[in-house]
Amino acid sequence: MSSANTSKDWDDLAERVVLHVENYLAGLERCARGEAASQTVSVLLLEVAQVMLAGAQLGASPDVVLPDNWEPEIGEDPDLDAVRQGLAERLPAVDDYTEVFDPYKDPETTTYRLSDDLVDVASDLVHGLRHYREGRTLEALWWWQYSYLNHWGNHGGAALRALHAVVSGVRLNVAEEELVAT
Q: Looking at the whole model, is its pTM more than 0.85?
């Protein structure tokens, strides 16, 4: 896209992002309910990878600028604690992991939880989706882009690396036996 994006350019990007967002949210909820069973980690790896593609598209796009440089109020976002709890119950052996928050500015490791990261991503995505469903495409894109660069991109990337480590460890037969059960 050129720096002088048209409404059609933004609409096309929004439609692509919405598909990823809706798929991610639905997949996360299915996993939280236990529908992925023994494939939970693998399914989550796929869901996170796909939504991170949407994030990469947002990050590679020119800055979305709101006409009034102001985001309309949309009220409280839904409570996702049941999803967080459901994921934590299904990921007990791998929920806690360590990650470097910023390899350039803060190389110290930080403890993360997959269940928290996955729901933090979902929360940011839901907020933008609510704008989109209210017909405010530009606000949705602005929010998704801003929160990707500022918040959910980091949590999604960390979760992606952790999930990949579990799947590759199991598949390469180098993981601890308790991880095989995930």
A: yes
